[in-house]
Amino acid sequence: MLKLILLSLLLQSKVDLNRASLDELLKSLPVDSTKIVKLYEYIESHGPFQNVYEISTLPFISPEDFLKIKKLVKVVPLVQGRNFSFYAQRVRETAREEQSLRESAYDEWISLLANPINVNKAKVDELYSIYGVSLIDAVQIVKRAKMLDFRYASHLRRTPGISYYAYRNLLPFISFRTVKPKGVAGWANLRIAYYSELFQEERTQVEERLGEVGVPDTTSSLWSNLRSAGWTQEDSLWLYEQLSKEKEEADRLTPSFYTKFKINSVFWGKIRWGFSFQRTPYYLDFPDLKYFAGLEKQRIISGLTLKKLIVGHYRLTLNQGLIMDNTDEGRDRLVDRTFGLYGDLSSTKEFALYGAAGKVSFRNLDFLGYYSKNKRYGVFSRDGLPVFYYVSDFMPSTFKDAFTEYVKGGEVKFNFPSPLPLGTQLGVSFLRIEYDNPPTANFSELDIPGDKEDMSDPSFTWVTGKRKEFWGLNGRTVVYPFSLEWEFASEKNGGKAYIIKSRIQERIYYINLLFRHYDVDYTNPYARPFREDSRFEDTSLERSYRVIDPLYAELSYLPLAKPETGFYIETRFQPVRHILLQRSYVDIWRDNTDLLWNYRTQIALEFRPIYPVRVRLYQKYQKRQNRRYLGITTSFLKESSIRTFFLLGGWTSLGIEFRYSQVDLTPKTYYPEAAISGGFLAVTFDKTFSNKFEVKGGFVVWKTNGLSQWNFEDVGIDFLYGDGTKYYLSFLERLSPNLGMRLKLKYKESGYPHTGIWGQGLHLPGGEELYSSFVDISRVYSIQFSLDYSF
Hints:
Layout: H1 2-13, E1 15-16, H2 22-28, H3 33-46, H4 63-72, E2 73-74, H5 84-93, H6 103-114, E3 117-118, H7 124-128, H8 135-147, H9 153-157, H10 164-170, E4 174-175, E5 184-195, H11 206-211, H12 221-228, H13 233-251, E6 257-267, E7 271-279, E8 288-301, E9 304-317, E10 340-343, E11 353-362, E12 365-376, E13 378-380, E14 386-389, E15 403-415, E16 425-435, E17 467-479, E18 482-491, E19 496-505, E20 509-518, E21 564-576, E22 579-591, E23 596-607, E24 613-628, E25 631-647, E26 652-664, E27 675-688, E28 693-703, E29 709-712, E30 717-720, E31 723-736, E32 739-754, E33 758-763, E34 769-771, E35 774-790
Helix pairs in contact: 5-6
């Protein structure tokens, strides 16, 4: 018994070679530091060891070195794709990236954690849809698997042409052998959160927005303008009743718990089903329910396979997003996306598809068909006709069931056989949208007549009618180290859109190039392509004081791409170990609604003077032009930030970031400021106490001077307004390999200075009226709790 106890203590004191940092190895192993660095780099490039004796096969490790190392290390094989609780938390933390994907993509990746792909039998598209895996990576892996089965992670790492970034991201989602499917397997997630105030990150509170109009009366300037524009007493009564109903429902909104539960499981590896329940303070009457059932990977006859069939709610993303991507998660500068057909348990509301969709393959052909019928929220004009879609956290009953939408579409793809390169495809797609009560897109009905701006911006161009039809062509090919992807789409009675994307990839760098063009009259509500702005951003619709109902301003957040033409180039380059050019890019584009050119560029450089210290320098420049009723306004952004990370040993890191931004503006008589600015100082830390328990936290202080800021937290991006401070702590507990818990506590205090406010009849000795300034303080605390479980 004593021997077992001593042996156990000895093993616990040994360094885990597969998981140790370079700093830990340098402190623990009594051999030449150059050899230790080579050993660490070998693990980084070739993958983890399966047993301690593999060390002796390395050419730079002598027999004497091996005997010394053997006594002080242990090799615990990394069982990738099985430690669900660890990797599920890491998947959610990818939300910290500026161009990150969102919930619908995370759901699919987490499903793969619970049911990994056999990399030896994987198809190109299966691998390509995983986070951080390029088309080149996917093709190179499938090529290697056809020639030689992968047995270990180290075999995968040695695949010619695969990037180290793709290798690290793939490991949690794959296995190296086919496992007999369980009777039942899957995952479940529970998330509960409480915020002391109702808020929307980039928007003001619902109550305040409705308060901008307040209770209308016949003597106000608003009603005077409406009467001058031909509004009747009945029209005014309609608006009064709509605003009153919205105000009544908004007054019922109180801070309460956000609750989301979802479960996604598969029976015998063939039958999949999922269910989600969501309740937020903005749901007044009933919670949001989603569900689906499906059949997948079912052979029908020789050569004909049902890849996937889903009935219920489903998510569908095709190619570059020009024809179909029904998420409401429109993201700026999103080069890669998780594509395919999946059951939908996400928070997508207005663009959710409900019906049936299926995909079958016959030899080199893939066939996809889908159908959806769903009622949509929409805003109305005074004559009772729907004007357009409406999406927001708060969905008032006045906008409910504006119209019923029928979505029908399909796609056929041909996968070219040898001698053409593996992964070469050519496809044709089609989409039809039908309405029982079609939106008129008459946005002038939403405008306050007689003010300085109107809805004449070409952004409000929209092809209308009871039916909208689109067709498209797409293709791709890979010739290492080069890949090419493209998509073309055209709308019947409307415009055209196209994207050409290519990538050059080598071991120490990659270059992404993307050219896109979207006509003003290409008006697909399900298009989510690469973009710089949403369609109604920076128009009069964005400003609630320009529309007759403040809630109409929510339309400016619809995830529709603004018509634009542009060229984007992005790169990452690491010439030596201590210097890294991180994701850096240049985007030059023309806004096709005003024909003005803009640019945006970011350079990110990381320098590692010594191993435990990383210094990242960011520099961003952006020039934007906008056509206004008095002429062209120009803004020029300069943003600088420095982020320093210290690896303190013991799996502890400390980060310090300072950012300062300034926007030079075109001064106007009604807006005399020549510049606005803002900045913050952030301190973050990550402390791992054991393989099961980890604490993350941070502190931020900021001052905006009119320019809002954003910064990264543990699982997302937070927007900072006014002046303020913020603290947060996250506790991560991996209760078992199948069960993980996260608890987050956060306090945020923001001050909004108000100056130039007229006083209460007070005057200076010279007769000038005295201004009265004040600061509006907002204090918000929140508690967030989540559980991830696989079975």
